[in-house]
Amino acid sequence: MSIFLSLLPILLLIVLMVGFKVRGDWSAVAALLSAVAVALFAMPALGEFPIEKYTAINPELTAVTVTWWAFVEGALKAIFPILIIIMMAIYSYNILLESKQIEVIKQQFTSISSDKRIQVLLIVWGFGGLLEGMAGFGTAVAIPAAILIGLGFKPTFSALVSLIGNSVATGFGAVGVPVITLAKEAHGSDVPAHVIQIVAGDVVLQLSVLMFMIPFVILYLTDTSKKYIIPNIILTLLVGAISLAAQFAAGYFIGAETPAILGSIACIVFLVIWAKMTEKGEGQKLNYTGGQLAKAWAVYGFILLFIVLASPLSGPISEFLKTHCVSKIPLPIYAEGKTFNFGWLSNAGLMLFLGAFIGGLIQGVRGGKLFSILGQTVMKLNKSAVTIISLVAMSAVMTHSGMIKELADALVVATGSLYPLFAPLVGALGTFATGSDTSSNILFGKLQAEVAGQLDMDVSWLAAANTAGATGGKIISPQSIAIATASCDMQGQEGSILRSALPYALVYVLIAGVTVYAFVHMAL
After folding, report:
1. What's the CA gap between 55 and 433, in Å, rounded?
2. C-alpha separations of 421 from 11, 199, 510, 519 in Å
3. Confidence band for 523, pLDDT divided at 50, 70 and 90
C-alpha cells in the first residue's frame, strides 16, 4: 500500500496528461495536491513518514509543518533559478524576433547546410549540448526549440527533438555539477579528484551506445525518407564516435566539468566541415559581412560569454560571483548550518538576461522596448509558471515525506541480483520526479552505492548508472516538457508532448540498463 500510494502522484500526473489530455498546469496542481494528501495522511498512518529525522532538527516539527516547508522549498527551487532561466531564455529569443536578427541566423544555418537534417542536428545536438554543458537548467531545451521554430519547423517537432537531444549531455550539464554531486554522494564529500574522473569516465561509457542512437533518432525524425537511412547511419557513426572520444577523454583525463562542452564543440566543428565537404556549396549563399553576422549573434554570443565567466572554468571570477550577493534562507526542515541558497550574481538566469539585453542594444532595440519585451515574456508564461512550481513542489513533498525513497527501495528489493539492469530506472525515476539530474543523484546516489556494496559490485560503476538513467528521465520530465511547450508557445499541450516523447525515453532507459548490466556481467 505504501508503494502504491507513493506512486500515486506520478500515476495521476501521467493519467491526466496522457490519458485524459488535461492541461499541464491543471494536471500538475492535481498531482501536487495528491502528493500533499498522501504525505499528510497516508505516510504517517503507515509509519513511513521519516518524522524522527525532522524532530531531531526541531522537536516542534510535525508531518503537517514538514510538508508545508517542503512545499516552500519546492516553490523556491522552481522560481530560483528554473523559472527565471526559462523566462530569460525565451526573452532572448523574443529580442531576436523584435530586432529581426533571427532572419540572419536562419540564413547562416541554411548557408552551412541546405539539408534540414544537418541543421537540426547542429542546433539540437551541437549547440544544445554546448548550452547544457555551460548552463543547464532548461536553456538547452528552450533556446534550440525557439531557434528551430524560427527556421520554420513545426512547434511539436521542435519541442520533441529538443527534449530528445537534451538527454546525453545532461549528465555533464552546468559544468559537470550532476556527476560531481554523484561522486560526493557515492564516495563522500572529500572524494579525491581522480575518483570523480573515474565516475565521469564510467558515465560516458554507460552512455556510449546512446551517443550513437540519439543523433540517429534526431536525423530520422527530421526526415523519415528511406533514401536517408544509410546516410543517417554513416553520419550517426561519425558523430557518435566523435562525441564518445571527446567526452571520454575529457571526463577520464580532465574531470566532470568539460565532457559536454568539449564533446559539443567537437561535433559542431565536424558537422560544419561535413556539410561543406558533402554538399559542395549547395547551401544558400550568405550575403552578410562578418560584422553583420557578429551583430546577429550578439545575443547568444554575450550569453555564452557570461555563462563561461560564471562557470568554474573562469576560476577566481566564478568564485567571486558565487560568494557575493547570495541569499541564504534557513528553512526549518534543514539541519543546522544548511540553507536554501540563491546566488544573484552567479545564476544562469542573470547571464541570460545580461547577454540578451546587451545583445539587444547592439542589435538596435531601445532600452525601453527591451524592458517592454521582458514584461510581455513574463506575463505570457503564467501557465508554465503554475506547472513548474507545482511539479517542483510535488517533488519536494515526495522527497521529504519518504515517498521517493519508498519507491527506490521497493525496486531494489524486487530486482535482487538483476538490479544493475534496473539501476538506471532508479535514476530516471528521480529525474522524472524532480526534473533535475543533480537532484536525482542527491536522492539516489548513496542508495546506488549501498546496493553496490551489498551486491559486491564496483561502487563508481553502479553509482554512474544513476546518472545514465537520469539523462533518459530528463526527456519526459514534466518540468522539461513545460519548458519545451513554453518555448514553442504550446502551453496546455504538455500531455501531447509527453505521449510523443515517452517511447523514446523508455527505450533510452532500457538501453542504459542493458549497457550497465552487460558491463557488470563481463566484469564478473
Report:
1. 26
2. 23, 18, 8, 10
3. low
Q: Which residue has the higher pLDDT, 503 or 191?
A: 503
Q: Cα separation of 515 and 85, whole Å?
A: 34
User: How many CA atoms are closer than 13 Å to the CA of 153, on its beta-carbon side?
Assistant: 27
CB burial of residue 382 (10 Å; 0-12, 13-18, 19+): exposed
Q: Yes or no: say if 432 and 163 are a contact pair by the CB < 8 Å rule.
A: no
Chain segment 330-344, per-residue pLDDT in tens: 999 998 888 988 889
- The predicted-structure confidence for 296-310, as pLDDT tens digits, reads as follows 989 888 987 887 787
How many CB atoms lie under 10 A from the CB of residue 150? 17
Q: How many CA atoms lie within 13 A of 383 on its CB side?
A: 18
C-alpha cell at 29: 496542481
* Spatial contact of 187 and 242, defined as CB atoms under 8 Å apart: no
Longest dimension (CA), the chain: 73
- Span 361-381, mean pLDDT? 93
Q: What is the dihedral of CA 102, 174, 200, 503, to 10 degrees?
A: -60
Q: Which residues pair with 340 in a beta bridge?
A: 329
> Of 87, 179, 85, 88, nearest to 138 (Cα)?
85
CA atoms 471, 475, 479, 482: torsion sign: positive
Contact yes or no for 472/512 (Cβ under 8 A) = yes
Query: Long-range CB contacts (< 8 A, 24+ apart) of 412-416?
Result: 412/447, 412/451
- Residues 6 or more apart whose CB falls under 8 angstroms from that of 500 comprise 156, 160
pLDDT digits (tens, 9 = 90+) for 286-297: 778 889 999 998
What φ, ψ does residue 326 adopt, rounded to 5°?
Answer: -110, 120
Report the SS3 class of residue 90.
helix
> How is residue 164 written as a grid cell?
530528445
Q: How far apart are CA 401 and CA 256, in angstroms?
A: 32
Burial of 224 (0-12, 13-18, 19+ CB in 10 A): exposed
pLDDT at 256: 82
Q: Is 225 buried (19+), middle (13-18) or exposed (0-12) by CB count in 10 A?
A: exposed
> pLDDT value at position 454?
74
Q: How far is CA 151 from CA 26, 110, 124, 160, 352, in A?
A: 31, 9, 13, 15, 21
Mean pLDDT of 480-509: 89
Write down the pTM of the prediction.
Answer: 0.78
Helix (H) or strand (E) holding 329: strand 326-329
**Hey, what's the cell of 161?**
527533438
C-alpha cell at 123: 542546433
- Specify the DSSP element, H or E, that contains 263: helix 259-279
Rounded CA-CA distance 172/140 in Å is 12
